[in-house]
Structures are given as C-alpha cells and as structure tokens.
Amino acid sequence: MSDDFVLQRISASKREKLGSIESRRIRRAGRIPAVVYGHELEPAHISVDDHDLRDLIKNRERVFEIDVDGKVEETILRDLQWDTFGSYILHVDLMRINASERVTVEVPVTLRGTSPGALDGGVLEQPLHTLELDCLAHSIPDSIPVRINSLEIGDAIHVSDIEVPRGAKIHNEAEQVVVHVLPPQGVPEPGAEEGEGPDAPEVIGESESEEATEE
Ranges for the Large ribosomal subunit protein bL25 beta domain (predicted)? Predict the structure, then answer.
C-alpha cells in the first residue's frame, strides 16, 4: 500500500462475555457488538462505538482499521444487522484483510441519466442492482455508474457493456442484463409482425360476416 493512502481507524474493545443479554447491555452503553474473522485466525468478539461506526457508514468507508487495546488490524465491513425498522445497528461482521490485497464484494449499480425509451412510454427495468466485483480492497468503489441516456425501447445494457475501474473485474455472467427498456404493456416487441402469435385475434372479412349472419 502506498504511503499516501491512509485508512480510517476506530477503537474497539474485547468482549469478555457473550450472549443476547450482554449484547443488549453493550448497545445500551452506546456500543455495537461485533466479530472479526479471517486470515486463518480465531474470531475475535469485540465492541465498537456506535457513533464512530455510523460515521464510517455515512462516509461509505468499507475498509478501515480497528484498534483493539493497542493491536491494530485492517478490516473490511462484511455485514450489518439492523433492527426491524432499520434505525439501530444490532451487530457488525468484520473480516481481516490486507488493504492491498484483492477482495470480492457486492457493489451497487447506479443508473445515470434518462432513457429516451422510458420517456416514450417504455418500461425501464433493472434486473441487476448489484455486481460482484473483484478489486483491491482499498479501491472498492461506492457504486458502479451505468449511463442509460441512449436506451431506446427494446435496448438493453449487459454486464459485458459495463466499464469498471482499472484493475477490477466483474464476476457476473457477461450476458446478464443489467438494465433494459421494455415496450409498453400490450405493445408488441419492435420487429414483431402484426397479427402473429397465439393471442392474435381472428379477423373476419366483410363477406364472411354476412354469410355467417344469413346462416
């Protein structure tokens, strides 16, 4: 890791007791129960300050250092458990890493711009909201932007069309659709011939209609 790259650091304390009762006591004291695992070491049960952790989340820091009684470790945020209403953090999972090593993480997809096809009445759908990205731990992007300014009705953007930061790789299948614009409901796909398909109504000519009436 280069000298000009500095990780954020928060303090942590070892948890001597485990269990739901102890976890509730820790949360009442303004701290969050956490576990640190990885690098073939025993999991460490710790607690971190709720305010410090929320600051990291607010700043979208996923890789940071924890100082556990003077022992500093580089970690990546792997999982957050929230209460039912998404107001309080109940528990956090951290994984030990070297910030210069490669990791595989889920990164959200952010759509940029406005689709002309959607403005014309098409239905914009986004089957993939996250992508599995392989990159350096200290270079994890907040999101992967996908521009949809050129999407007309019937157009699609696939995983193979996505640009990622230099050195990063996407693990999703190349042919997967990230976002596409479907025709308005009840309108056939572009290029489909009128009247074809199992649901096409039978057209009765004028003479046929008269014969049917006479019978």
Answer: 103-185
